[in-house]
UniProtKB/TrEMBL annotation:
Pfam families noted in UniProt: Acetyltransf_1
Name listed for the protein in its UniProt record: N-acetyltransferase
InterPro entries: Acyl_CoA_acyltransferase, GNAT_dom
Domain N-acetyltransferase, residue spans: 1-186
Native source species: Kibdelosporangium persicum
Signal peptide: none
Amino acid sequence: MTAVPSHRSQLVELSADALRARLYEALGLYITAMGYPKGTAEQRAPMWLAHMLREGWRCVAALDQNDELTGICYGYKGAPGQWWHEQVRRGVLELAGPGVADEWMRDYFELTELHVRPDSQGRGTGERLLRMLLDGVPQDRVLLSTPEGKTRAWSLYRRVGFVDVLRNYRFTGDPRPFAVLGRQLPMTPS
């Protein structure tokens, strides 16, 4: 792990092995931050483990003074054949056509997860995680999906320059409307 000191929380890069060792702690944070039922961890664990095998996977975490996770952020290079890529491409094709879909989805980093424990939100942790994760990413752009609605996540994404790619999209198997947001890389320093 590579540590970056901070007065609020310590940010660290996690290897796949390090995240595997903390997987249920990380999933617990995710479930709490998203308000999901406890059984969600068993459903999500195999997906998170599979994501760790994808090209360009990287992960950053925030740790408190007791070495407990207060935030988790990971992603990887998006590519054809991945479930999220195919879902988003279909939506962008329907909305804006192949030119827009090709432009956004030709060379991108998928920000898959970014979560901060509710008792640690509002302290800049999410933005610090996001910036550290995306620093040095070789892709031209970053894409993410987030549930529609005014949240701290929405405020963060807008503040750092994410724009609408697709709005009120419904992913297969989830009745909630989502937004797909994107921005060019690299990010400017904060």
